[in-house]
Fold this sequence. Notes:
By secondary structure, the chain is an alpha+beta fold. The protein contains 18 helices and 26 strands. The two termini are about 50 Å apart.
Amino acid sequence: MMVTLxxxxxxxxxxxxxxxxxxxxxxxxxxxxxxxDTEPIDALSLATKFAITDEIVSITDVTPAPKPKPKPKPKPKPxxxxxxxPKPKPKHAKRKAPAVTIGLPGxxxxxxxxxxxxxxxxxxxxxxxxxxxxxxxxxxxxxxxAINSVETDYGRNLSTSSAGAVGWMQFMPATWKTYGVDAxxxxxxxxxxPADAIFAAAKYLKASGGASDIKASIFAYNHAGWYVNxxxxxxxxxxxxxxxxVGSLTALAEAMYPVDxxxxxxxxxxxxxxxxxxxxTGNSGAAVVAAADGKIIKIGTSAKVGRYIILRDAYGxxxxxSGLGTISRRYVTRKEIAVTPRQLSKELRLSLHxxxxxxxxxxxxxxxILGAADDRRRLFANPSRxxxxxxxxxxxxxxxxxxxxxxDWFTVPVNIPRREAAIRSLKVGSTVxxxxxxxxxxxxxxxxxxxxxxxxxxxxxNAPEIDPTPILAGWKLLAASTNGGAGLxxxxxxxxxxxxxxxxxxxxxxxxxxILSDPRITIYDCGRADIEAGGVDRRVxxxxxxxxxxxxxxxxxxxxxxxxxxxxxxxxxxHSAGAAVDVAAINGxxxxxxxxxGSITDRAVRLLLALQGAMHPHQIITLxxxxxxxNTLALADHDDHIHIGFHxxxxxxxxxxxxxxxxxxxxxxxxxxxxxxxxxxxxxxxSRFATRxxxxx
Length: 697
């Protein structure tokens, strides 16, 4: 059929074109492209240029009309202003920071959430890799994803190009020898490893001036104007994705498998609509584990699903375990430790004010119990007596004895000294760390294997339960891409010093060990115990390492331990979930007395504002308000520290982006899209183009 195009506006440099296609199954597909105004705009030309194989139904010019230039206003006649009585300046004037530009030029979001979600084809396991590489090299993660899309369809087509380019991001072998990066930490920089290739592309773009002129750096990557336009267009579309979706998918990509050991899985059969859970089979008595740090929000037994537990992670994603053989009665956490601002000041050798309590008065700073809600209960003088034992004495005795072996309680390494470990009842409100054993699989009689059902509900009030199959597949692919996935460990790195991008891909346990051994980061003793116990959000840990890696060595004055459960506003503090950190000094310079434009505090805040994707803090609080930002606040009681917080639940979305939550139908569309597109293959070996790692990238 003949497809015609009506131009929406007169001659412009670039035009945004909307193309409606008919897919192989008859479904309608919407695609946006950008073309130069001098190029032909017809079905044949567009199909040739953008490698479109589906039938083009319509072409629409959606280029916005240029705004008319305003007429110059006549200059007012000069006049002598009336004399005014000068107002006295307040003693404590509010400090204003200069405006901050969020995002980078050329990445204005494009498209509506519905259109973007219907075309989403990024394998979720790649999201944390794009974001980690983008943060390390100062390149928008959306640009890296767009290049990956153009070059190899996110690794689905790894054919060598006619020019001889190879791998996930299509590097010429000679160029790879210069820019190849060993992001996976296996000692080899391999263009056929997705993490290595994506980091190398970010490194190349940075070397080509990408931090100041992203279009010029893309042109250096591929010397073609159409290529630059296509990459920028795809990146703008990715920039239009709701933050909630990006954050939720990134968090899901970094979780761990819910059943320990050798497992198999299949989607459950739904009577109507798509499957909303998977049936996971494991060895007899296999441990069922918390897939991520989170809080138990439901626990019990029902006639329909049997024994069940529902866990909500730090991002607001919800994991449902049902059909359990047993539910753990208890779990291990760290004992309560009390610390006061006076003790902190003495320990850190800094002048610190007392943290405000919920009533606004100074507080002694007694820590809440890590991993437990308010747990007032009767204590027995002789808990071993039969009646007392049944009424709670059994738990009292267990808590007094403490855990004999932490390996009996966790499937991942956890460093809690035995004298500081505490056994608590597993119940609604319990906060557990990823890898905590919360139950066992159900094992039928005369069988050497058992099973559970596992479901996922993404963050957000409108999110439905989704088919976890694409997410579970992504966990295995991330493991293959990063030499161990979310548990990435750099003990075997020949360089011995991971880059910040590699740190961002590390699991929380390995990251905690890295933080505690980093001489650049000063942490109060009680806070170090928080990290050892696994009670601090990995985003907080990665942020501390990010500051240090950029020459801003932080002194930490508050994590979980020692901070009140409630903030001054009366809301539950992000510290209570281990999702916030207070920094009292940078490079030994106290925050107190060093705020304002150009100060050490100002430089640190601007560095934090460059964090992307799921690493974007929910709150950065000082005495300064930054115009053009969505996460900075100026509060008078933050004169002695920088508060950096991440949203501990999904009740109001991941970030402060009201109106950008996606609805139930869009979530269903997204998961259906992920099920329908093929996942790329990630090889476990190295290719003949791999080069030996030369250290930090």
